Structure formats: structure tokens, C-alpha cells
Amino acid sequence: MPTNAPTAALTDVTSSGSTLRRFLHGLPGVDAVGLEARAASLGTRSIKTTAKAYAIDLAISMVDLTTLEGADTPGKVRALGAKAVRPDPTDRTTPTTAAVCVYPDMVAVAKEAVAGSGVKVASVATAFPAGRAALPVKLADVRDAVAAGADEIDMVIDRGAFLAGDYLKVYDEIVAVREASGAARLKVIFETGELSTYDNIRRASWLGMLAGADFIKTSTGKVAVNATPANTLLMLEAVRDFRAQTGVQVGVKPAGGIRTSKDAIKFLVLVNETAGEDWLDNHWFRFGASSLLNDLLMQRQKLATGRYSGPDYVTVD
């Protein structure tokens, strides 16, 4: 389902609110029935045992192991960091996760916990999850996280401004956060469950990429509708088409509601069949998850031994 993005020079489309609106509303409309049918069809692909073992290890390496609760403590974050570094202490062949994702005040603790491992520390920012704060407050949030050592920043867009059609405000905020993030990679969260339509998700995807996102991310995990195969497929089409038009590759991160190995593998099939193999790497695709890792570890152990381990095989986060 190619989007056939407009051929207008992308350097010009953000010059004013009217040109940006014209560009975003000039994107092809989404065929919702076709999108959902294709996502469902790709989800039925059968995976052989050897490919399944590879896919499980790949999925583990793509997890942003996440704790974003008001009750987070340094001890909980240290334990999560240890799990990210050694997901299965009984099997040293298990890959590390991609990152640990925490609030800004826990970045320093997480950084110490994963030191020397290659696991990144991601931090949500910009008044996560609602994003209801003045821009100076949002930028201070970002700078605090970066100063504490965050390798990646997960920001939320102003959904109110987006839904009101003030696309230039959303664009300018992303650009400002991109600058405040410095060398940290920037993931832009749309909260797709609040954007109401697939057309809005496509517009948000292009808006985020035009503003300099390193990743586009479905959701915060804090609302009723989070990552789905259909909205992720739509975002994968967008990054594919954006690279075809600009030469710039952008990552995708579905987050929220992905809990089983079966689900994760379905998403990997979406990646391979839509964006292509270049995105089958944790530099370009992530899972935002807290419980997914445990099921991946259980399924990995079953493939290795032929039997399921007891419930105490994995830690309860």
C-alpha cells in the first residue's frame, strides 16, 4: 500500500502554517479497510522453528524495558537495569535488551545500572504522558534527562494542538526538543489512540519526520488504545516512503499492549514485509514494553528445552 508521497520540495513545506497544512492534507487518504486487511493478513504468516528462534532473539534485542510509574524506586530501576543487561541469568547467549526507559529523575540510576553493557538509557520527557505544559517546562524536562546521561529522549506531541490543526506549533515544538536533546536520539510519541483517524496518524508521522524525529512512536502505553498492527503498519509505510523521498531513515517504535512472543513476531513480519530488512535492527525498530520480555524468555527456553519452565523462571517486574 504505497503512499505515493507528494513530490513538493520538503524543504519548503514547513515554511509556514499554511504550506505545512497543505502538504499534510495533500497526503493520500488512508484506505482503512485495506490497511486493516493487510495487517491481519501479514499476521497469519507461519514461522518455522529456526526462524522463530531468530525472531525471538531479535525481539529481545529490540525491547525498551520500561518502568514509568509514580511508585518507581531506585531499587526497582536498578533491578530493571540488571534484567536488561542479563535478561536470562542462566543463559549467557540471551541478547541484552536495547534500552531501559525511565522518568528523567531515574536516568542517573539506570545509567549506573547498565554501565558498560551497551544497553541504552531512554527517558520520557516533555511532561509525559499528557504533554500539557509550557514549552520552557518541556525543554527543561528534556535538558534534565540529557544532563543525567539519557541516550534517548521519548517526547510526546501536543495532541490538542495537532487535533486543532495547529501543525506548525507541533512542528516547532519537535524542532525545539530535537535541539535540546543534543546527541540523544529523539523518539516522537503521537498517542495514536487519541488521534482518532488513520489519516491523522499518517499526517503525524510525516510531521514528526519533517521535524527531525529519529523514531516515530505509537503511544505512551497510558491510554486505552496503544500499538496495533494497523497503526504500526501505517507508520512503517510512512518511514519507508520518507526514506525513498529524502534518503533519511527513521525508526519506528510500537508501544503499549504488546505482551506475547506471538504478538512481537507478527510485528516483525510487518517490518520485514513493509519497510524491509534495513529496519530489522534495534537501531531502527523497538518495542516499548514492560511484560513482553518475560514471555519472550519463556518461549526461548521452551524452544531450547522442549518444555515450559515454571512461573518462577522469570522475574516479576
Overview of the structural elements:
It is globular, with a radius of gyration of 19 Å. The chain is 45% helix and 10% strand. It starts with 16 loop residues before the first helix and ends in a 12-residue tail after the last helix. With 317 residues, it is of the alpha/beta class. The longest helix is centred in the C-terminal third of the chain and has 18 residues, at 229-246. Strands 7-6-5-4-3-2-1-8 form an eight-stranded parallel β-sheet. The chain is built from twelve helices and eight strands. Helix 9 links the parallel strand 5 and strand 6. It has helices at residues 17-25, 32-42, 49-61, 74-85, 107-113, 135-147, 159-163, 167-180, 198-210, 229-246, 261-274, 292-305; strands at 63-66, 99-102, 120-124, 152-156, 185-189, 215-217, 251-253, 287-289.
